[in-house]
């Protein structure tokens, strides 16, 4: 039996909505934003960094903009939060960056991916 395809607007709209909803979580590369923000709070990252406002350190949205399109951004930032490398504060002083305490590599990667996904 040959089946005819029709372009019924109701069916088309339902299909488009289904596709958009199905792929929505993939737009941020599978990032668990709630877990990332929770980790940032637990690790006191948000003491020095705001999500969209600068504090002693740059806002995470500013970090995301700085590294946008750079192929090594994720690995660079993972190393940054794990190493304690010195950073220059907005006041001009140099300070060792606080080292993230968790050793959960997946959680650290999720945190960095979340930061990079911010716009």
Fold topology:
Layout: H1 9-23, H2 33-42, H3 45-48, H4 60-67, H5 73-83, E1 86-88, E2 94-96, H6 105-117
Antiparallel strand pairs: 1-2
Low-pLDDT stretches are 11-27
Helix percentage: 40-55%
> What percent strand?
5-15%
Distance between the termini: 50 Å
Biggest sheet features: 2 strands, antiparallel
Which structural class do you get from the secondary structure elements?
mainly alpha
Return Rg in Å: 20 Å
Q: What's the shape?
A: globular
Question: What is the mean pLDDT?
Answer: 83
Count of separate DSSP helical elements: 6
Could you spell the SSE succession in H and E letters? Answer: HHHHHEEH
Query: How many beta-strand segments?
Result: 2
Strand order of the main beta sheet, please?
1-2
Can you describe this structure?
By secondary structure, this protein is mainly alpha-helical. It is built from 6 helices and 2 strands. It has helices at 9-23, 33-42, 45-48, 60-67, 73-83, 105-117, and strands at 86-88, 94-96. The protein has a two-stranded antiparallel sheet with strand order 1-2. A hairpin with a 5-residue loop joins strand 1 (86-88) and strand 2. It is globular, with a radius of gyration of 20 Å.
């Amino acid at each position: 039996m040959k089946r005819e395809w029709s372009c019924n607007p109701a069916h088309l709209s339902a299909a488009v909505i289904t596709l958009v909803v199905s792929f929505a979580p993939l737009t941020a590369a599978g990032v668990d934003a709630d877990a990332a923000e929770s980790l940032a709070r637990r690790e006191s990252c948000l003491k020095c960094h705001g999500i969209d406002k600068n504090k002693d350190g740059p806002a995470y949205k500013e970090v995301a903009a700085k590294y946008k399109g750079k192929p090594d951004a994720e690995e660079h930032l993972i190393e940054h939060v794990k190493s304690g490398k010195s950073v220059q504060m907005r006041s001009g002083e140099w300070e060792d960056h606080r080292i993230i305490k968790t050793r959960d590599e997946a959680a650290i990667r999720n945190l960095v991916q979340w930061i990079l996904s911010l716009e």
